[in-house]
Amino acid sequence: MTQIRAAVCREGSTQFSIEDAQLDAPRAGEVLVRIVGAGVCHTDMAVRDRQLPVPLPVVLGHEGSGVVEAVGDGVTSVSPGDAVVLSFASCGTCPNCADHAPAYCYNFGPYNFASARADGSVAISTAQGPVHSHFFGQSSFATHAIASERNVVKVPTSAAHVPLERLGPLGCGLQTGAGAVLNSMAVKAGRSLVVFGAGAVGLSAIMAGRIAGADPIIAIDLHENRLALAREIGATHTIKGDADLASALHDICPTGINYAFDTTGLGKLIELAFNQLAPRGILGLVGASDADAMLHFNETSLMGGGKRVMGILEGDSDPQAFIPQLIEHHVAGRYPFDRLVEMFAFDDINAAFEASESGRVIKPVLKVSAA
Ligand SMILES: [Zn+2]
Ligand SMILES: [Zn+2]
């Protein structure tokens, strides 16, 4: 057992309360991580606001980074003292995990949202009783977390000088945007990339677009401060979201868009993006929509243009391979994701969520302990 402090999400409250708790020792295949940093992502908000069915009380947090303190039986790839980034969980045995596509694990739901071990047990308890753990295989809004060997990714030694608390968001939001460009759509140099929405995911896609050599790179957002940042980190053009987007895009890309990436989940924008695609253009979708949302495309245009519309989770990343690549890009100065990050003290977790919701901060990260 480890004594921890954890931000608990309880029934009847939309604020987190930081509580003293106890965390189990790691079981077979599990890894105990002292959390150094933890990013705030929209999925945490959706659970806090009961838009996603996760059992309560629960400790959320799914963009953790930290230092391994102990490992359970059978764990060989990490050992105590290793710096790690925590990513999403997957089963490791289904057909998609076998194909190195763990984002589409057949068991993604239970492994990431059930917030318990496969046998139903939870790892956290307080004086008030058990608390759900293992959210996204980590529950990293706490001083310590139990993860599994599959979802802890060792930080390369070349990044030993990078502040460890900064790296957590690579485990979800940032790998989603960068992976969509580099893995899912496999953007080619010299082709146009349009990104709808310049939040953390969209800005990560823009930085990755620059790595891929896309040109032009066009960012669309309602907020001028985000467009300004987009220009600094890779966008060659920006369009204010309330403009006539179809004609503005046509002016920049008269023969159509090669790659369109939507982070907004807004049907009208997605359909507009589809209608601007060049022949063989690809439209990638990561934005969350209402559960019953439908899209309308013209079949002749889809088929006749050889166009593709693809849903994307976690940027099609295999975290064990892709997160170290992103860290290398960061160390080399090609992927300055720290420009998106603002640090908050762990005790200020509710303020960090507010700063994200108001749009003031693109990627709040909680500094939980010293590296
Ligand atoms: Zn699987
Ligand atoms: Zn996330």
What descriptors fit this protein?
alpha/beta; six-stranded parallel β-sheet; 11 helices; globular
Please, could you describe this protein's structure?
The protein has helices spanning 42-48, 95-98, 108-113, 173-184, 200-212, 224-233, 245-252, 267-275, 299-304, 319-331, 349-357, and strands spanning 2-9, 17-23, 30-39, 58-59, 64-71, 83-86, 124-126, 129-131, 144-148, 152-154, 193-196, 217-221, 237-240, 257-262, 277-285, 308-311, 341-345, 363-367. The protein is an alpha/beta fold and 371 residues long. Strands 3, 5, 6, 9, 10, 17 and 18 form a 7-stranded mixed beta sheet that branches. Strands 13-12-11-14-15-16 form a 6-stranded parallel beta sheet, with helices on both faces. It has a 5-stranded antiparallel beta sheet with strand order 4-1-2-7-8, with no helix packed on it. The longest helix is centred in the middle third of the chain and has 13 residues, at 200-212. The model has no long low-confidence stretch (mean pLDDT 96). The structure holds zinc ion (ZN) (2 copies).
